[in-house]
Amino acid sequence: xxxxxxxxxxxxxxxxxxxxxxxxxxxxxxxxxxxxxxxxxxxxxxxxxxxxxxxxxxxxxxxxxxxxxxxxxxxxxxxxxxxxxxxxxxxxxxxxxxxxxxxxxxxxxxxxxxxxxxxxxxxxxxxxxxxxxxxxxxxxx
Length: 141
Description:
Blueprint: E1 3-9, H1 18-31, E2 35-44, H2 46-57, E3 65-69, E4 76-84, H3 85-94, H4 99-114, H5 122-137
Helix pairs in contact: 1-4, 3-4, 4-5
GO molecular function: metalloendopeptidase activity; RNA endonuclease activity; zinc ion binding
Subcellular location: Cytoplasm
Pfam family, one: YbeY
């Protein structure tokens, strides 16, 4: 049975509307032709995510998200997605999108990484942003 879990590390943040978030993420995975097995979203602080970034990716920078693909079978989605709530709050204010919209964009961004989308070049970043916008528009909550 597919599961989507939400955890906190070094923060007290808890997402609202968990059932709707789970359904939206699941529908996104299915729409892209994949099977959802297990997806863990870990909401954390900047300091916690910086440590993950340094330890596992050898990057010494703050970021809003780090995604780990743990899938062993092609077409199955199994992964851990770490999201900095500090970055979400700051970027929501900076880009005038609001905290909830920024959170949802980053949540779906992580799922899209597991679905094979990248943002390493201008072209792939544009495609990923278009997909983010597409799935954000499908939210019904």
